[in-house]
């Protein structure tokens, strides 16, 4: 009985997508790099990443203290560049979109 429950649990878990993969969105995902010069310590990127992750439409947000940047993958149908820069500014870290 217990063996059957464990087996059904394991089979059910293999059907789930891995946690590290982003959920598919309706629009074509876009990736942008933001310059965030106000990051002054190793904890700043955590705040920046959390602020960006709360924006509806953001699929993935990464931030880097060494380069003072944030890289954001988002659905442009749900979020705009101004939404992203507004989120960092509201968290105390004004940012600008990096032009390549």
Summary tags:
globular, 100 residues, alpha+beta, Alpha-Beta Plaits
In CATH terms, what is the architecture? 2-Layer Sandwich
CATH class: Alpha Beta
Structural class per helix/strand content? Answer: alpha+beta
Widest sheet, order of strands: 2-3-1-4
Number of strands: 4
Termini gap: 60 Å
In sequence order, what are the helices and strands, one letter per element?
HEHEEHE
- Shape by Cα distribution: globular
CATH fold call: Alpha-Beta Plaits
Radius of gyration: 18 Å
Number of domains: 1
Largest sheet: 4 strands, antiparallel
In terms of DSSP E residues, the strand content is 15-25%
Ranges where pLDDT stays below 50 over 5 or more residues in a row are 13-25
Number of H- or I-type helical stretches? 3
The helix fraction, in percent, is: 25-40%
Overall pLDDT metric = 83
Tell me what the structure shows.
This protein is of the alpha+beta class and 100 residues long. The chain has one domain (21-97): Alpha-Beta Plaits, CATH 3.30.70.100. The protein has 3 helices and 4 strands. The chain has helices at residues 2-14, 44-53, 81-90; strands at residues 30-35, 58-64, 69-74, 96-97. The chain has a 4-stranded antiparallel sheet, with helices on one face. It is globular. The model is unreliable at 13-25 (pLDDT under 50).
């Amino acid at each position: 009985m217990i063996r059957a429950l464990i087996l059904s649990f394991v089979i059910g878990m293999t059907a789930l997508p891995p946690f590290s993969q982003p959920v598919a969105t309706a629009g074509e995902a876009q990736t942008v790099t933001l310059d965030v010069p106000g990051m002054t310590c190793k904890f700043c990127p955590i705040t920046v990443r959390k602020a960006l992750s709360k924006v509806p439409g953001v699929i993935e947000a990464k931030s880097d203290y060494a380069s003072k940047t944030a890289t954001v993958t988002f659905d442009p149908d749900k979020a705009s560049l101004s939404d992203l820069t507004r989120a960092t500014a509201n968290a105390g870290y004004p940012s600008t979109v990096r032009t390549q």
